[in-house]
Amino acid sequence: MLDLIKLACRPRTLRTSALIALVVGSLLNLINQGDRLLSDMPLDWGRMLLNFLVPFCVASISAALNASARKGTRG
């Protein structure tokens, strides 16, 4: 488990995950809160944060599991 955390926290993994989260999170926010963004309705900041956080976590975990599988040190 500690190996996976180390792999997920590598600078390259963090940069890639952040880029993915920026693109996917922006699209999710447009889909989920487009009406609020285009009107005077208040934004749901919790939902907005989750729209960026979930893709970041998925990308980081996926990259760590992939790197671990290539190394043969899963878990």
Protein described:
The protein has 75 residues and is mainly alpha-helical. The protein has a domain at 45-70. Helices cover 81% and strands 0% of the residues. The protein has three helices and no strands. α1 packs across α3 and α2 runs antiparallel to α3. The longest helix is centred in the N-terminal third of the chain and has 27 residues, at 11-37. The radius of gyration is 15 Å and the shape is elongated. The model has no long low-confidence stretch (mean pLDDT 92).
Question: How much of the sequence is in beta strands?
Answer: under 5%
Report the total helices. 3
How do the SSEs run, as a string of H and E? Answer: HHH
Proportion of residues in helical segments: over 70%
